[in-house]
Amino acid sequence: MKQDITPAEQAIMNVLWESKHWITINELIEYFEHLGKEWKRQTVNTYLTRLIEKGLVVKNGRKYIYAYTKEEYEAQKASEVLNALYGGSLKKFVAALSDSHSLKSEDIKELKEYLDQL
User: Into which family does the record put it (predicted)?
Assistant: First the structure.
């Protein structure tokens, strides 16, 4: 799952995750029409094909569903970032956050509570 997804692919994934069931291209087109996006069938098909190639979507006949839950996807992407930028070290990641002063005292408290639960 090392490939990034485009904003349009992310939008489709969000619909699939929200629906939690198999969905057709027509249902996707209708959904996006309600949002003011006029995507043609071929456009949606192209995005779905790319998501299938990336291993994120599964096709069964004319219906599609996600291969991973949103939580599984986010955990995998977070792990990839942690490994790529911090050598897999959570300590280095937190240190980088604290050096940039982006951790608030409430964030630190929540992090301590989370680590205590582990």
Answer: Belongs to the BlaI transcriptional regulatory family.
Q: Are residues 105 and 65 in the same domain?
A: no
* Amino acid code (one letter) for 25: I
DSSP 73-109: HHHHHHHHHHHHHHTT-HHHHHHHHHHTT---HHHHH
Total number of domains constituting the chain: 2
- Digit-coded pLDDT (tens) for 33-57: 999 999 999 999 999 999 999 999 9
Domain with 37, as residue range(s), is: 7-70
In degrees and rounded to multiples of 5, residue 56 shows phi and psi of -100, -20
* Cα–Cα distance for residue pair 47/61, rounded to 1 Å: 17
| pTM score over 0.90 | no
